[in-house]
Amino acid sequence: MTNRRNTIQKDLVKNAVYEMKRHVTANEVYEFLKKEYPTIGKGTVYRNLDILSEEGALRKVEVPDGANRFDITLKNHYHVRCIKCGEVSDVDMEEIPDLMKRIHDTHGIDFLEYDISFKGICPRCREKMKEEQNG
Amino acid sequence: MTNRRNTIQKDLVKNAVYEMKRHVTANEVYEFLKKEYPTIGKGTVYRNLDILSEEGALRKVEVPDGANRFDITLKNHYHVRCIKCGEVSDVDMEEIPDLMKRIHDTHGIDFLEYDISFKGICPRCREKMKEEQNG
DNA sequence: CTTCATGCAAAGCTTTTGCATTTCC
DNA sequence: GGAAATGCAAAAGCTTTGCATGAAG
User: Fold this and answer.
1) Tally of CB atoms within 10 A around B37
2) How many whole angstroms separate alpha carbon B94 and alpha carbon B77?
3) pTM, two decimal places
4) What is the pLDDT of residues A22-60, one digit of tens each?
5) Range of B93's domain?
6) Across the interface, which of B68, B110, B115 has its CB nearest the CB of A126?
7) Is A31 within the bounds of a domain?
């Protein structure tokens, strides 16, 4: 588990996410790296993104009905996803204190973590919609 | 959009979710219905589950890295997903008031809705893990 | 009779996996 | 040199889609 090897590819994946400065999908990372390292495997990118998330170097933002995203922000925070284009961005909101304590009937479940996910429409898509209406 | 036809299949799908009394996946609904209506199409089930969710008759619980679930509970509530078996159940927790108001910098995004999703380990899987350790 | 939904199969998209080869320690 | 990661391709899992046929209004 903890005995992981340091490989070039793992560094490449990590640095790619740092350089891209967005909430990137695994495929975006793969395409990004393929330019300079054409032999890198998609499986390797997926594997390393997950490993890096487990290790805490990256954060995996799970997206239903779409590709998962990865980012580098270390502080805990929430995300909003545009229902039109699917873009994910950070939400500036304090964490809700003691959220786990509010759970009453647990059905015997051990609660481990939670995530709040928002949906909305980003400025770019809002503009596009306006234009379509006026067009 | 709003001019939808009432079809037998749509009723079947709705009733199936009501009868199954769980957070069911589209495929589970399909298998359930196929017993009595062997010619029903998987696409039809998917289409009607989405239509019924849009209409408010069902609630779609989006699950990353897994099949989406549908249930009938009309009151707003939250969900917890077992990280071992993937089962989804309701969480008994009051809604958090004014959650949307807590958002500070919106980057110009129009916020529409939010969802809180918990992760945990269900009693059944916890037992299984214990047995494996002691075995 | 026109339009929409169905059934079926195929394709789409994201992710995982099997395996020979290479790399790391 | 032994174990683990890679690259490649194939498969898996969930969902959507194209199209001819059939049902609804």
Assistant:
1) 14
2) 8
3) 0.84
4) 999 999 999 999 999 999 999 999 999 999 999 999 999
5) 8-134
6) B110
7) yes
